[in-house]
Design brief:
It is found in: Membrane. GO terms for molecular function: heme binding; iron ion binding; steroid 17-alpha-monooxygenase activity. Heme binds at residue 424. Belongs to the cytochrome P450 family. This protein is α+β, with helices and mostly antiparallel strands. It is built from 16 helices and 10 strands. It has helices spanning 2-9, 32-43, 62-71, 101-116, 122-146, 156-172, 181-190, 193-197, 215-243, 253-263, 273-302, 304-318, 333-346, 378-382, 408-413, 427-444; strands at residues 46-51, 54-60, 355-356, 361-363, 366-368, 373-377, 445-449, 459-460, 466-467, 472-476. The strands form 4 sheets. It has a 4-stranded mixed β-sheet. A two-stranded antiparallel ribbon has the order 4-5. The protein has a two-stranded antiparallel sheet with strand order 7-10. Strand 1 (46-51) and strand 2 (54-60) form a beta hairpin. Helix 4 crosses helix 10 and helix 6 packs antiparallel against helix 11 (273-302). The longest helix is centred in the middle third of the chain and has 30 residues, at 273-302. It is globular and about 65 Å long. 45% of the residues are buried. It binds protoporphyrin IX containing FE. Protoporphyrin IX containing FE (HEM) binds at residues 95, 107, 110, 114, 280-281, 284-285, 288-289, 292, 349, 352-353, 416-418, 422, 424-426, 429-430.
């Protein structure tokens, strides 16, 4: 009887029929997160698909995702042992490593060094905010330069440079100019990173694709090279830091990490983890932030009435003679509502980095074995019609109550940084950055799209959804301000 009961409890997961060799690859389509949400309507919020040689469980909707990542946090905190994951950060990435005691120590170290240089006390907070504001002003200058004579330009690359610069300032105490060709070229190649590690990428689940020439094989080769190049860039800076290290002066995050790993009492991590930690942080902080900023300008030009309202509010609260600061935030709640709606509406990290189960586990009555790959569909949470009125409509006011104040519960319902043990560790600094960047850009510029081209929200799929094409012109509003330190 017990055996029958267990069998019933361990019901096979529902899911679509999987073809031999390819499984459900042909069904994924251009936007797998939307396919996953459609499949959830038919099979429920927890179901199984097969991609190549991997069985994958897909989790959709707030309830199933919270049950997995919060109630069964440890069981869902793993990462698959994909070959591509081992090419990242010299093979010692914290982000792409399975759950273990060493991973815990590594994550704690990354988290505490990030905090020490962004929010530990009022002085570090101020220094960090000044960095971000200065970077935003360099962006304004680069935009105005590219807009000379009414020209339209693609701002994506400037956003990447600005986002990478903030991380380089934290990690190395230096930034790079928007015209630094070497830096730009390296970042341009890194743009392709998310193609390989995004949920649904075929590189790791169909290893036989490596044996003959095809597009997936060249993506794979390219991925290996771009990781090598980026890791070499970081290693070079870390080596310089090591050579000039002074235990009495912590210049930046590289010094702080060297100090813990190489001069502290047993961190459990070897010297090589210094380079890996810095590579992880710069990589994670750059792609996500620049993609978010691309969506922000795209939505500002797509909805000129929203842009006009934001200009109005920023002008009233800040005035023409100074730049916006974090202290203005409590009076700029419509701006925060606009940012949250951008994150919800675009769900630009539609599916988290793939997870895996660290032991057998049962959720919603369904048994999932240890070492199963798990996709977490954040998009499905942000577009659930039971939770959001007209989820397909862009409307920042949905986050404001009748007094124009931000509704905290609604804000917390947006899922973009994931949740549980693998939740993003950069969420707080990302929120400060996006607020300051957007506030400074709006204070200084007005944006317009190229009327000779159709304005589209079409995007490419990967770890992040990137707009396919943005063409804007930026005009100075009032006077160009300097940064007060
Ligand atoms: C992981 C989102 C900015 C550092 C993640 C994950 C998501 C995410 C969805 C995967 C969580 C999972 O697998 O369940 C974002 C978004 C950002 C952002 C939307 C910007 C708007 C940043 C920044 C940093 C950062 C600025 C660092 C400076 C990390 C790290 C991980 C991570 C280290 C890996 C955590 C782990 O595996 O334990 N982020 N992120 N992120 N993020 Fe972010």
């Amino acid at each position: 009887w017990l055996w029958v009961r267990n069998l019933r409890l361990k019901r096979r997961l529902p899911g679509p029929f999987a073809w031999p060799l390819v499984g459900n690859v042909m069904q994924l389509g251009q936007m797998p997160h939307i396919t996953f949400a459609k499949l959830a309507k038919k099979y429920g919020n927890v179901y199984q698909i097969r991609l190549g040689c991997s069985d994958i469980v897909v989790l959709n909707g707030d309830r199933a995702i919270h049950q997995a990542l919060i109630q069964h946090g440890t069981e869902f905190a793993g990462r698959p042992n994909f070959v591509s994951f081992q090419m990242i950060s010299g093979g010692r990435s914290m982000t792409f490593t399975n759950y273990s005691k060493q991973w815990k120590a590594h994550r704690r170290l990354a988290q505490s060094s990030l905090r020490a240089f962004s929010s530990a006390n009022s002085q570090t907070k101020k220094t960090f905010e000044q960095h971000v504001t200065a970077e935003a002003m360099s962006l304004v200058q680069a935009f105005l330069h590219q807009s000379t004579d009414g020209r339209y330009f693609d701002p994506s690359h400037e956003f990447t440079v600005a986002a990478a610069n903030i991380m380089c300032a934290l990690c190395f105490g230096r930034r790079y100019g928007h015209d630094d060709l070497e830096f730009r070229t390296m970042l341009k190649r890194m743009d392709k990173f998310g193609e390989t590690v995004g949920a649904g990428s075929l590189v790791d689940v169909m290893p036989w694709l490596q044996s003959f020439p095809n597009p997936v094989r060249s993506i794979y080769k390219n991925f290996k090279n771009l990781n090598k190049e980026f890791f070499a860039f970081v290693t070079d800076k870390v080596v310089q830091h090591r050579e000039s290290f002074n235990p009495d002066v912590t210049r930046d995050m590289s010094d702080a990490i060297i100090s813990v790993i190489e001069h502290g009492t047993d961190s459990g991590l070897t010297k090589e983890f210094v380079e890996a930690t810095v590579t992880d942080l710069i990589g994670a902080g750059q792609d996500t932030m620049s993609t978010l900023m691309q969506w922000i300008v795209l939505l500002l030009v797509k909805y000129p009435d929203v842009q006009a309202k934001l200009h109005d509010i920023v002008d009233k609260v800040v005035g023409p003679d100074r730049l916006p600061s974090v202290e203005d935030r409590r009076n700029l709640q419509y701006l925060d509502a606009f940012i949250y709606e951008t994150m919800r509406f675009t769900s630009f990290v539609p599916v988290t980095i793939p997870h895996s189960t660290t032991s057998d586990v049962t959720i919603e009555g369904l048994h999932i074995p240890k070492d199963t790959v798990v996709f977490i569909n954040q998009w499905s949470v942000n577009h659930d019609p039971l939770k959001w009125k007209d989820p397909h409509i862009f409307d920042p006011t949905r986050f404001l109550d009748e007094n124009g104040a931000l509704d905290k519960d609604m804000v917390n319902s947006v899922m973009i940084f994931s949740t549980g043990k693998r939740r993003c560790i950069g969420d707080q600094i990302a929120k400060v950055k996006v607020f300051l960047f957007t506030a400074v850009l709006l204070h200084q510029c007005s944006f317009e799209s190229d009327p000779s081209e159709p304005l589209t929200l079409d995007c490419s799929y990967g770890l992040s959804l990137k707009p396919l094409r943005i063409r804007i012109n930026a005009k100075l509003r009032g006077k160009l301000l300097g940064v007060v330190s």
